[in-house]
Design brief:
Blueprint lengths: L7 E4 L6 H12 L2 E4 H7 L3 E5 L4 E4 L1 H12 L4 E4 L13 E6 L2 H10 L4 H12 L2 H9 L5 E5 L3 H29 L1
Parallel strand pairs: 1-5, 1-6, 2-5, 6-7
Antiparallel strand pairs: 3-4
Helix pairs in contact: 1-7, 4-5
Length: 180
């Protein structure tokens, strides 16, 4: 079934601003914010709690089964620090948020992250791990890298995604009309 509204992933290293972007975008557009962390917890898509990393050990198969009915009709903003597990057919746009390492250090320190997790996340951001994962997993034309160091950048990002959404809907309405 063709989607009448797109599915968007907002991804990036923990602390880049995924949740902040998703909440604002959902408020402005009416798209549904799917926090994968919440789904993992509420639908029990995990194999227990990792004490060292202070996070759930995700069961990806269970997670995909839980999410499939949610994304089927489109209109979802998927909020998670990974993107390569989601089937290409689900996704219309992948936004990879980026921040400077000093900004990320400050944000993660403020959250009192365990040292090992803080260092790994900083390394991951510097090495562009999530950006590369997105580029390896999806067509290059649907992957967008956006900076998220300040409130101004976040506003600009939301404006850009809103414009993209409007265009997507226009393009897909035309295709729907041509098909009928
Ligand atoms: N563009 C931004 N400008 C200024 N502060 C920001 C920006 N984006 C996020 N922040 C702040 O950084 C912190 C982390 O943001 P947020 O929780 O949205 O990140 P996240 O990527 O969703 O993290 P996680 O993956 O751990 O859920 C919050 O305190 C938030 O207010």
């Amino acid at each position: 079934m063709a989607r009448t509204s797109p599915n968007i992933i907002i991804t990036g290293t923990p602390g880049v601003g995924k949740t902040s972007h998703c909440e604002l975008l959902a408020e402005r557009t009416g798209l549904k914010h799917l926090s994968v962390n919440d789904i993992v917890k509420t639908s029990e898509c995990h194999e227990g709690w990792d004490e060292e990393y202070q996070s759930w050990i995700v069961d990806e198969d269970k997670l995909l089964d839980a999410m499939e009915p949610m994304v089927q009709e489109g209109g979802c903003i998927i909020d998670w620090h990974a993107c390569d597990l989601f089937p290409k057919s689900w996704i219309d746009l992948v936004v990879v948020l980026r921040v400077d390492s000093t900004t990320l250090y400050d944000r993660l320190s403020a959250r009192k992250y365990p040292e090992i997790k803080l260092q790994e996340n900083l390394d991951s951001e510097i090495m562009e791990v999530l950006l590369q994962e997105a580029r390896d997993s999806y067509e290059p034309e649907i992957v967008v890298e956006l900076q998220s160091n300040s409130a101004e950048e976040m506003d600009t990002n939301i404006d850009r995604i809103e414009s993209w959404l409007k265009q997507w809907k226009e393009n897909n309405a035309e295709e729907g009309e041509e098909e009928s």
